[in-house]
Design goal:
Elements lengths: L13 H27 L6 H21 L7 H28 L6 H27 L3 H27 L13 H31 L11
Helix pairs in contact: 1-2, 1-4, 2-3, 3-4, 5-6
Length: 220
């Protein structure tokens, strides 16, 4: 018979829990204006805005309980659940519903853009806390995680540069794609695809190593 004491998951460091607490308080405060504005400030009841912001507020309460140490089981998974809720809320509540309601309203457009940026920063913060909570269980996790970042960071930089300057040999927006343009596109797509696959593999590996009781082979 297995007992609850077998392969226990260590409680994250106090600094991680404190970071989650601070992020959760900021998230809660950022959700309140959205709930208020969703009631009638957009010319009608914005169901998507109101509902998803209410969910974000509830998820922030979970984060506060995690940060205070009131909930100790499944810390990293619980934080990732908060991340998932915030991503859905940002996409369907703020980006789609709020942006649709306000259209080109000069009063609310800057608010929506700033709120999306704030949410992205908060999501990155929560995801980082969850990752550190898992990686701190085994030093091998960090090596695999750094390898993943090393592969994925150039992909992000490449995407930004391609959006800014376009593909090589494209000849402009109105020009017909030539052989060099097609070849460069295929080569870039192939290289980026390989790097994304490799980076994803190393990141998944890092989380796998961090599972309690797991001792994966070193060569995998």
């Amino acid at each position: 018979m297995t007992t609850a004491t077998e392969n226990p998951i260590p409680l994250p460091a106090k600094s991680i829990r404190s970071a989650v607490l601070v992020l959760s308080l900021i998230t809660a405060m950022s959700a309140i204006p959205g709930i208020y504005l969703g009631i009638g400030s957009f010319g009608g009841f914005a169901w998507g805005m109101f509902g998803f912001e209410a969910l974000v507020l509830c998820s922030s309460i979970l984060g506060i309980l995690l940060g205070l140490g009131k909930i100790t089981d499944g810390f990293a998974l619980a934080v990732l659940c908060i991340v998932g809720t915030m991503v859905v809320g940002a996409v369907f509540g703020i980006h789609f519903d709020a942006r649709t309601k306000i259209a080109d309203n000069a009063t609310f457009v800057p608010w929506v853009n700033r709120m999306l940026l704030i949410r992205l920063v908060l999501i990155a913060g929560f995801a980082s806390c969850a990752s550190v909570a898992v990686f701190s269980r085994d030093a091998r996790c960090w090596k695999s995680a750094f390898m993943g970042v090393a592969f994925l960071a150039p992909v992000l930089v490449s995407v930004v540069l391609l959006r800014r300057f376009g593909f090589p040999f494209s000849g402009g927006q109105d020009a017909e794609p030539g052989a060099l343009s097609v070849i460069s596109f295929l080569l870039i797509a192939l290289v980026l695809g390989i790097m994304i696959s490799a980076g994803g593999h190393f990141l998944i590996r890092a989380f796998e190593i961090g599972q309690p009781g797991k001792s994966p082979a070193k060569g995998g």
